């Protein structure tokens, strides 16, 4: 294998319209190819080897998705890549529409494949029954079985012979070589025994045996039909299961709206005209209509109307979100009630749905380190098995076994040793895990992220936007005697509803609109940097920042000091010039923050809080959540420095953040997790994007990674154990080739079935979460 | 370019032939090993069964 093999190209920085993604330096291009005809890990190794031979090319091939991601110099034409794959004996096509992520193949099997399996089964089953049950062996049964087995050996197993010959032309051997040789050897031996030996004698009876039978002139027609039948059945089932593990892309593809109702401005005084257009024709700035039951066509801002949007398919959150004028909406979300007029802000691949789809596609197209190892092992496995079968044949011939016994033993070795379980062990588990993560709002940038995530022993959490919502909320109201808090608050909210300041909005939001003081606010004045003033209900109200030298009643002074110590914001309310109340405002914890800390500790992970806020605010949140390790007043450089220090002490930190100030730490750490509501810079620097609004997604990502790597471990253990145990048994002549075929197919199905269990994974404490 | 093409096709044909020869050599080598180690007792050889007359004799004896 060339030096570059085994390297998996990183996700492209930017994707061009033609499906080739141009790197930032402009000299390298990423091209995705659909590779057909790959059946096992040995095929993967072969395609990689061929592509990596081209100067400057590195590639990663994924068996489960049937795709190759090739990073090549701009000077290397795609035609050369396609030719290289074809030279390796496989079909290749360029994926020209990765913009919206490739559409995975349908989950059902192809009709011709199903028909082939059915016809093969119809021909093979009588042969299997009659050959294995002596009581059914009528006079000249062996000749009838020969007639039935011939089309199976030639037509049913044709795909194996064709691929084996193609591989041979390219000086290689694959799993198909093993199957083809097994079928050919057992069929030719049966022909020899029937036509030149004594097996064709009328009235011949053949006993059933689990092991090879070399005592009599034996026909091995049950192996001739059994091997292709079981392998074809196994592959068909594998194919179905493999496609199901990649269903996350299907689910995302279904969210894309095909048509949209655009609103065109008509003559003045007339309502806008509605026009139905394909989604591709929608441009940013246009207004479009969303009716109840429809999906929002693209990302935008609500111009008018109100509705409850169901975000469950996008973020895994089950509660609908109410939106109204000015709110941002995401394309792909379902309008559960109410009509909206939305102004499009992003379209196509720039939308949030487009970015999510691309992240899932990137994650599933990549290849993990453990998978590369398995592929390399499988690549040398087939030639070794062929060498082993030849050695076994020679040994038994020399050791006095009959030619029939020796040949059958070699055939059993060929069939049982196929490394297809080895090839499927890792990609199917990663595919299922990344897809399942996406369904719960956890997007991994690549399969290697899952490997790194498992090793994480320290989670560094940003405060604002990660543990807290980053939005001001009224936390406490303290009034002087004789002034009911609710009455003061209603007056303050009435004035503050005209304010644009976050503090003002938080105070206004604390009183429901129905409870606000009726009547207009007059003489409203916003005092820059200090507060607002206005007249409402005949009273002059002033809501302003609390200054340290203000003369206040004791109870208000104490409330102000408490807020100051806790790093919160205190504002003073004056009615007709008299100080009557202190309102304490502060950031609020995101849902699930406390549970997140508890779950991370339960996973054996240390928790640390890192924030740019001052000591008071940092300590208040840390105390509320029970976090001991806190670093406050940290600049972006400080955050990166803290991560570097942790790494220097041997720890494996993961950083969770949302802002531009977290980007350096996110990029520098072992593993960065960005909150999906955060900035694009943070998301770009992170390896995991959390699309949910609750903080628990962090723990979910860690748990899923541990579970996925556990599944991969058990898959690989099984695949290796299966081969290590059964090859010696087959070499000792204790395994009938037909039983070997059943064992080989069963092993692959077991591995794929084990991976499929990841699709039923649920985050702890979320029993009711949607399962698509 | 032609020479390179010829070299490539020679290598392409030579490789499978070489591999088949290696397999043949292995088969021959292990045949010799089998001869040297053998003959292996009949019970241990692949596909060995009790002769049919022995089975029927044992069955009659048991009756």
Automatic annotation (TrEMBL), chain A:
- Keyword Translocase included in the entry's annotation: yes
CDD domains given in the database record: HMA (cd00371)
Main subcellular localisation? membrane
Region (Disordered), start-end ranges: 1-22
Describe the location of the HMA domain by residue ranges.
29-93
Q: Which Pfam families match?
A: E1-E2_ATPase, HMA, Hydrolase
List where the protein spans the membrane: 117-135, 141-157, 178-199, 219-237, 377-398, 410-433, 716-732, 738-756
GO MF annotation: an example = P-type divalent copper transporter activity
Keyword set, alphabetical order? ATP-binding, Cell membrane, Membrane, Metal-binding, Nucleotide-binding, Translocase, Transmembrane, Transmembrane helix
Please indicate if the UniProt record lists ATP-binding as a keyword.
yes
Q: Where in the cell is it found?
A: Cell membrane
Any one GO CC term of the record: plasma membrane
Describe its membrane topology: Multi-pass membrane protein
Q: Which GO terms describe its biological process?
A: copper ion homeostasis
* Family, similarity comment: Belongs to the cation transport ATPase (P-type) (TC 3.A.3) family. Type IB subfamily.
Q: What is this protein called?
A: Heavy metal translocating P-type ATPase
UniProtKB/TrEMBL annotation, chain B:
Q: Where would you find the membrane-spanning parts of this chain?
A: 12-33
What UniProt keywords are attached to this protein's entry? Membrane, Transmembrane, Transmembrane helix
- What domain of life is recorded for the organism? Bacteria
Its name, as the record gives it, is Uncharacterized protein
Organism encoding this protein? Streptomyces griseicoloratus
């Amino acid at each position: 294998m060339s030096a570059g093999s085994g390297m998996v190209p990183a996700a492209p920085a930017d994707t061009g319209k033609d499906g080739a993604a141009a790197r930032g330096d402009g000299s390298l291009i990423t091209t995705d190819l659909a590779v057909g005809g790959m059946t096992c890990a040995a095929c993967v190794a072969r395609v990689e080897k061929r592509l990596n031979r081209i100067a400057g090319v590195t590639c990663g091939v994924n068996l489960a998705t049937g795709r190759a991601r090739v990073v090549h110099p701009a000077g290397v034409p795609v035609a050369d890549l396609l030719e290289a794959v074809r030279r390796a004996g496989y079909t290749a096509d360029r994926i020209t529409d990765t913009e919206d992520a490739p559409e995975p193949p349908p989950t059902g099997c192809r009709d011709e494949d199903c028909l082939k399996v059915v016809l093969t089964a119809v021909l093979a089953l009588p042969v299997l029954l009659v050959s294995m049950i002596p009581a059914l062996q009528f006079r000249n049964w062996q000749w009838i079985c020969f007639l039935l087995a011939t089309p199976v050996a030639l037509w049913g197993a044709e795909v194996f012979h064709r691929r084996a010959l193609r591989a041979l032309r390219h000086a290689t051997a694959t799993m198909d070589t093993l199957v083809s040789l097994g079928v050919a050897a057992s069929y030719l031996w049966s022909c020899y025994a029937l036509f030149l030996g004594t097996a064709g004698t009328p009235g011949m009876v053949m006993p059933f045996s689990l092991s090879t039978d070399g005592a009599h002139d034996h026909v091995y027609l049950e192996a001739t039909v059994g091997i292709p039948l079981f392998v074809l059945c196994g592959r068909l089932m594998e194919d179905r299961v493999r496609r199901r593990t990649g269903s996350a892309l299907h689910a995302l593809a279904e969210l894309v709206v095909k048509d949209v109702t655009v609103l065109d401005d008509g003559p003045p005084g007339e309502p806008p005209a509605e026009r139905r257009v394909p989604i591709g024709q929608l441009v940013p700035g246009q207004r479009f209509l969303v009716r109840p039951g429809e999906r929002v066509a693209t990302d935008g801002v609500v111009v008018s109307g109100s509705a409850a949007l169901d975000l469950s398919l996008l973020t895994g959150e089950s509660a609908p979100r109410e939106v109204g004028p000015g709110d941002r909406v995401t394309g792909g979300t379902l309008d559960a009630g109410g009509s909206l007029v939305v102004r499009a802000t992003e379209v196509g691949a720039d939308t949030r749905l487009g970015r999510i789809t691309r992240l899932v596609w990137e994650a599933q197209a990549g290849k993990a380190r453990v998978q590369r190892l398995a592929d390399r092992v499988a690549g040398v496995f087939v030639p070794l098995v062929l060498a082993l079968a030849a050695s076994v044949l020679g040994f038994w011939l020399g050791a006095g076994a009959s030619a029939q016994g020796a040949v059958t033993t070699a055939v059993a070795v060929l069939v049982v040793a196929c490394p297809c379980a080895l090839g499927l062990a890792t990609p199917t588990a990663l595919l299922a895990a990344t897809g399942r993560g996406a369904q719960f709002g956890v997007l991994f940038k690549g399969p290697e992220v899952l490997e790194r995530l498992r090793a994480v022993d320290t989670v560094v959490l940003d405060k604002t936007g990660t543990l807290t919502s980053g939005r001001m909320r009224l936390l406490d109201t303290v009034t002087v005697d004789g002034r009911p808090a609710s009455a003061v608050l209603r007056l303050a909210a009435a004035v503050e509803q005209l304010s644009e300041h976050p503090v003002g909005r938080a105070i206004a939001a604390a009183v429901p609109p129905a409870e606000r003081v009726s009547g207009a606010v007059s003489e409203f004045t916003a005092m820059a940097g200090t507060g607002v003033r206005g007249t409402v209900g005949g009273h002059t109200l002033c809501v302003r920042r609390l200054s340290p030298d203000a003369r206040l009643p004791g109870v208000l002074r104490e409330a102000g000091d408490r807020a100051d110590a806790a790093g919160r914001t205190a504002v003073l309310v004056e009615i007709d010039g008299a100080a009557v109340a202190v309102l304490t405002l502060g950031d609020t914890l995101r849902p699930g923050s406390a549970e997140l800390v508890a779950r991370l500790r339960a996973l054996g992970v240390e928790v640390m809080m890192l924030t740019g806020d001052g000591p008071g605010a940092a300590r208040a949140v840390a105390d509320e959540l029970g976090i001991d390790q806190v670093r406050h007043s940290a600049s972006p450089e400080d955050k990166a420095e803290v991560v570097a220090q942790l790494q220097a002490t041997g720890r494996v930190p993961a950083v969770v953040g949302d802002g531009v100030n977290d980007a350096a730490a996110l990029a520098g750490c072992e593993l960065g997790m960005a909150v999906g509501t955060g900035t694009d810079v943070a998301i770009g620097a992170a390896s995991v994007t959390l699309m949910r609004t609750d903080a628990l997604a962090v723990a979910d990502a860690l748990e899923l990674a541990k579970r996925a790597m556990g599944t991969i471990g058990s898959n690989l253990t099984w695949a290796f154990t299966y081969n290590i145990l059964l090859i010696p048994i087959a070499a000792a002549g204790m395994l009938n080739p037909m039983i070997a075929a059943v064992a080989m197919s069963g092993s692959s199905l077991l591995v794929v079935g084990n991976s499929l269990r990841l699709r039923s994974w649920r985050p702890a404490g979320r029993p009711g979460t949607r399962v698509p | 370019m032609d020479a390179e093409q010829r070299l490539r096709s020679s290598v392409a044909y030579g490789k499978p032939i070489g591999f088949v020869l290696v397999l043949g050599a292995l088969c021959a080598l292990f045949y010799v090993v089998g001869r040297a180690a053998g003959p292996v007792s009949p019970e241990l050889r692949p596909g060995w069964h009790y002769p049919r007359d022995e089975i029927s004799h044992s069955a009659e004896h048991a009756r």
